[in-house]
Amino acid sequence: xxxxxxxxxxxxxxxxxxxxxxxxxxxxxxxxxxxxxxxxxxxxxxxxxxxxxxxxxxxxxxxxxxxxxxxxxxxxxxxxxxxxxxxxxxxxxxxxxxxxxxxxxxxxxxxxxxxxxxxxxxxxxxxxxxxxxxxxxxxxxxxxxxxxxxxxxxxxxxxxxxxxxxxxxxxxxxxxxxxxxxxxxxxxxxxxxxxxxxxxxxxxxxxxxxxxxxxxxxxxxxxxxxxxxxxxxxxxxxxxxxxxxxxxxxxxxxxxxxxxxxxxxxxxxxxxxxxxxxxxxxxxxxxxxxxxxxxxxxxxxxxxxxxxxxxxxxxxxxxxxxxxxxxxxxxxxxxxxxxxxxxxxxxxxxxxxxxxxxxxxxxxxxxxxxxxxxxxxxxxxxxxxxxxxxxxxxxxxxxxxxxxxxxxxxxxxxxxxxxxxxxxxxxxxxxxxxxxxxxxxxxxxxxxxxxxxxxxxxxxxxxxxxxxxxxxxxxxxxxxxxxxxxxxxxxxxxxxxxxxxxxxxxxxxxxxxxxxxxxxxxxxxxxxxxxxxxxxxxxxxxxxxxxxxxxxxxxxxxxxxxxxxxxxxxxxxxxxxxxxxxxxxxxxxxxxxxxxxxxxxxxxxxxxxxxxxxxxxxxxxxxxxxxxxxxxxxxxxxxxxxxxxxxxxxxxxxxxxxxxxxxxxxxxx
Length: 669
Hints:
- This protein has 669 residues and is of the alpha/beta class.
- It has 5 domains: 3-99, Rossmann fold; 111-228, Rossmann fold (3-Layer(aba) Sandwich), CATH 3.40.50; 255-355, Tetrapyrrole methylase, N-terminal domain (Cobalt-precorrin-4 Transmethylase, domain 1); 378-462, Methyltransferase, Cobalt-precorrin-4 Transmethylase, Domain 2, CATH 3.30.950; 471-668, Vaccinia Virus protein VP39 (Rossmann fold, 3-Layer(aba) Sandwich).
- It contains 25 helices and 30 strands.
- The strands form 6 sheets. A 7-stranded mixed β-sheet has the order 24-23-22-25-26-30-27, with helices on both faces. Strands 6-11-10-7-8-9 form a 6-stranded parallel β-sheet, sandwiched between helices. A 5-stranded parallel β-sheet has the order 3-2-1-4-5.
- Strand 4, helix 4 (79-92) and strand 5 (95-98) form a beta-alpha-beta unit.
- Helix 9 packs across helix 10.
- The longest helix is centred in the first third of the chain and has 14 residues, at 79-92.
- 42% of the residues are buried.
């Protein structure tokens, strides 16, 4: 097997080792410290060697391993190590490859010095507090600065040896900052402002080492940068060129690392530190235009894509190995993350949460959200009025055709004009606006298309959740209606779920349609009725009861059914002699449909029984229900019988279609 020796110690070295994991070569990785060893992920084809080595030690290592290639990915300021590796390879006749970091951008305001001693000497000529960002190795040389214990703040790795060294040299604990970098612009800026820094000392570690973020933060804080020059003028290849060589020579095909992250509310202030780190380390950032551009400060290439399939295409076409995919808000709250993850199952994917609009918004308005129903009406069908009618607190994302003005109008049209609304627009941005009012007060106001809403319905708790509304709850006119007791048993036989797609054939007043819509609040009901006055009455009852997930279909079945989506449940209250064709049409669209048929005549019961046999329906169940209602006569109560009703329920013989509702919802979107 091919043998390669990698001298690591930098982020690039760690990434090269990661790219070679489980590939067709043996890789030895030499690091100086246990900390460096901990950054290398183990694999069957990777061995990590820990400890500092001089030139003789490197020669011995070359003799033991006999690599055909040595990659030097040590720190650009580890000049002695680089000279030793280069010399050892030359003597042993081993191919040597130097991995270079880009030089940071120069600025006339920088104070360039040759080495650490020169930096310390310069600092003795100026006044003000100093931030050292050069590590713990040369703290002793900066101890030569006059009043160093009062002037210097040393930011070093949070390792016991380094911190102890600083304390032994006389640096006070309050001036020792133990943190792991690289650090973002924001962290650098906050540190300098908090400590009142005048001078910042750094090495030109390139963008990968955080140089750019340090000097830009310093400039914006009015802090002067003292830059220690690189000790060697070197020749070599870039990180990308190194990966290309490994691919060409050894067939190394590193797995792409994709981080899907929530950016919070979008203004940068709500980006988590973990997400910030992922953006800083990424070679490419992908997201919707508005979202990706909000991360432009990281200075990374941007690709704009919204749909999961388009994001996947960009990821697979890109040569970048570390990719950040930015999602609005939180990755688990109505996010495109759900559809994207199955498409990336062959890649290394990490998901980072973000701050979603619900906790941010509720914190701004002083409301809890643990007791709120969370829904999205953003570019999708949502029975929002139904949910507000039955829940005291509903939080909704809006957008597309379902804006705040439209929602308020629907609530008013359905008897919910008194519901209190709190609307949030442009959350976290300078033009953030929060508006309060009833649906009636807000129905004529203009709002941003992308907004959130919290609906507070004090009357929701009074809504009955049991099936079988009182007959008096419906507007009647002269249209026949299925009575309360029959409706209650019919609903039990239908066995609806919250997301059922229902047909009510021969809907009459719509009493069963509306009962089904209330039960299947995430589904939809198509009320099919041939009589004009009955259709009008159904629509009146919809508004009367505040039900919006019903559509009235004027026409005669089965012709009126041909363009309807596939049903999960069908109730037939009137067939006009077309029982078998109606059920056939339902079975054609969904062979496993649940069917319930009500009839009051023996002849119609015969038609039902014939249909069950002819169409091979299964799990049939026959119930005859006779109900009598009490009426008061003087001081007595007499029972008045209602017509007996036959309730027949059964299932289609086909295989269940689990994706039925999903397909229907996609069609409605």
